[in-house]
Amino acid sequence: MSRTLYDKLVDAHKVCDLPDGDMLVYVDFHIMNEYTSPQAFSGLDQKGLSVWRPEAHLSVVDHVNATRQRDPHDAASKLLIDNLEANCKKHNIAFYGLGDRRQGIEHVVVPEQGLVAPGMLIACGDSHTTTYGAFGALGFGIGTSEVEHVLATQTLRYKRLKTMLVKIDGDIAPGVTAKDIIMKVVQVVGAGGANGYAVEFSGSAIRAQEMSGRMTICNMAVELGGRAALIGADQKALETIKGRAHSGTLDFGGLAWNSDAGAEYDTMFEIDAAEIAPLVSWGTSPDQSVPVDSLVPAETEGMTPKAREALNRALNYMDLRAGQAITDIEIDSAFIGSCTNSRIEDLRAAASILQGKKVAGSVNAIVVPGSTYTRLQAEAEGIDRVFIEAGFDWRPESGCSMCLAMNDDIALDGERIASSTNRNFEGRQGRGARTHLMNPEMVAAAAIHGRIADVREFLSEGAE
To answer: CB of 113 within 8 A of CB of 130?
Structure first.
């Protein structure tokens, strides 16, 4: 019988069925950060348990650390980081801490170290673990009690998901990126439309994406509500993990990890890539987005009371008015970073827009490379000079930074941000902060103009 990639991955990792209908699955690799792991280690200590397979775990500092300087700016952050280091030393787990050339945002670090391969099952106490689906691996976020369980047993209780196929065919237009593709999918499917599903992406527009773009798509699939995101393995995926520090140590079958022809899914969506434009979120959910050259939406006839309430609440929080041109929205800050868009490819793309230009005087612009490795590569290519000369603050340390209000990069109440991050709910980047999600090139364009801008204008300038 034809099977989906998701079912193949689950079946390959199933240890046994459980009496309540769930199953026990084996975890090939587990990643931790300083924020979601302390209680798990405490639980091990209280039960007198040890870590069963230390070599199958990795700890990375990324959520609470400062990026302006190496040392955390407050005692609470330092305590979390020190505790993680101590626990890793105690249990002989690899630790990429501050000052380590391998340190950075966990979902940037793992692929660039060659620690992901098609066919793997990867778990992490962070919802954006779906990123690894770009390689034909099953990645998903877990809670603190589950972190403890996988440390002790290398297994997890798991409930099989329904399957969803999102097929995107056609050529994407200039100025459209992987970020726009996934924001379009969130628009079409809905912010919670994939609850209970594993989402597989296919089609010519997906295959045309470089691995950095595929990672962006799988990363933000969690904003659909999906707990897993997948793209079948191909030669491009295999080539990307060659020549890395751990390349060759992980082999689970390579190109075998694809859905069979004729595999059936519980639900399907088809999207024409040619209809996707550079998108900007106007509201407080990733599905509240529109093309950059359009208007802030207004109430429409037939809109349900719930939808009308959500629209008006978002407009009120974002301090926008219906019918306002998106390109008339002025910004206070521009941020390029996060596990969604801080890879070397993202930095190169944004730098191509900034070359020879200056950030508007009213804008506080920040760029945080996703890892130390990425930062050093960017500096070797001279990308840092492009950002600095344009007026961006080029951060010397890597971390989640302004993606979430969990470190010293916290937006002020009412501050409006053009952001390459993945979430825009109320207070995500700081209490009262107003976040507009967009691709990195669009963030660069907004920083130059001091307002949301259509990046295609910059592309046409370069063509003249």
So the answer is: no
Residue of 184, 185, 237 whose CA lies nearest to 209: 237
- Provide the 8-state DSSP code for 209: S
List the chain domain ranges: 5-270, 279-460
Provide the 3-class DSSP secondary structure of residue 410: coil
**Residue 141: enclosing H or E segment and its boundaries?**
strand 138-141
Model pLDDT for residues 445-456, shown as the tens digit of each residue: 999 999 999 999
pLDDT for the residue 243: 85
- Domain 279-460's class? alpha beta
- CA angle 277-370-41, nearest 5°? 120
Can you tell me whether residue 356 is helix, strand or coil? Answer: coil
Tell which residue, 249, 37, 217, 238, has the closest CA to residue 144: 37
Extract the runs of DSSP E, i.e. beta strands, from 326-448.
333-336, 364-367, 393-394, 416-419, 434-437
Rounded to 10 degrees, the C-alpha dihedral 36/39/41/42 comes to 170
The topology under which CATH files domain 5-270 is Aconitase; domain 3 (3.30.499)
Q: Give bridge partners of residue 122 from the DSSP assignment.
A: 29, 139
> pLDDT tens across 95-136, in order?
999 999 999 999 999 999 999 999 999 999 999 999 999 999
Query: Is 463's pLDDT higher than 60?
Result: no
